[in-house]
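I hope you will forgive my troubling you with a question about protein structure. The matter concerns a single protein, recorded as an amino acid sequence and a row of C-alpha cells. Please examine both parts with care and let me know of anything in them that strikes you as inconsistent. Here, with my thanks, is the record as I have it:
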Amino acid sequence: MVRALHPGVAVVTLPENQGAAARTVGARQVDEPYVAFSDDDSWWASGALAHAAELFDAYPRLGLIAARVLVGTQERLDPTCTAMATSPLDREPDLPGQSILGFVACGAVVRRDAFLAAGGFHRQFVVGGEEQLLAIDLAVAGWGLAYVDAIIAHHHPAPVRDHAARRRRMACNDLWTSWLRRPAHSAARQTLIALRAAARDPAARGGLLDALRGAGWVLRERRVVPAHLEAALRRLER
C-alpha cells in the first residue's frame, strides 16, 4: 500500500519485513532515472545528489555511484570507502571515479533501469553484505560502478547493535554470493575459508549453517560470472 504523507513523499507499506529488497520495491514506485538509497540512520550531504545526477548524465555507462560515507558525530571515514578508494582494479576512463565491485548501500546512487534490470537487492539476503551480489550483477550486465569521493553521505548507526547476528548474516550472504556467481574452484575456496572460521567462531558457524539451508535455491539460481570479472574478483581478494 502506498500512502502520501507529505507533498512529494510517499510511504510504501509492506506486509512483511523484506530487508534490503524493500529498496527494490521503492525503486519500482518512482519514475525517475536515478535513485539514491538512505536508511533510517543516514542522509545525504547538501548538493550530493545533484552532483550525482550530473555524473550520471555525463557518463552513460555509469550504473552506480558509491559515495564517501562519514560515520558518527566524529565523521570517521567508513573503512569500506578506504578499501574502495585504494581498489587494485584499473580505473576506467568512461567512469568518474575508481572502479569498484562493492559499495555501502546507504551511500549509493543507482541508475534505476540498470538497478531493476539486474534484479535489485536479492530478497533472500535481508540486510548485511547484500551489496556485492548486486555489484557483480551490474558489472556482468556491462555497467560501471565508481567510487566518487566528492559525493558525501552521513551515517550515524545506533551505538547498541547485535554485532554477532550481523556477522552471522554477512557470513551467510558472503557464501551465497560465492555459490551463486563464482566458478567452482573459487566457491570451494570460499567454502573452505568459511569452514575454518566456523570451527572457532559461533557467528561464522551459524552463518555457514544458514547458507547450507539455502543451498537448494542457490543452486537453482547459480550463474557463473565471465572470466574477466572472475579475474577482477580474484584481484580484490588478493
User: Anything to note?
Assistant: The first strand starts at residue 2 and ends at 6. The longest helix spans residues 163-181.
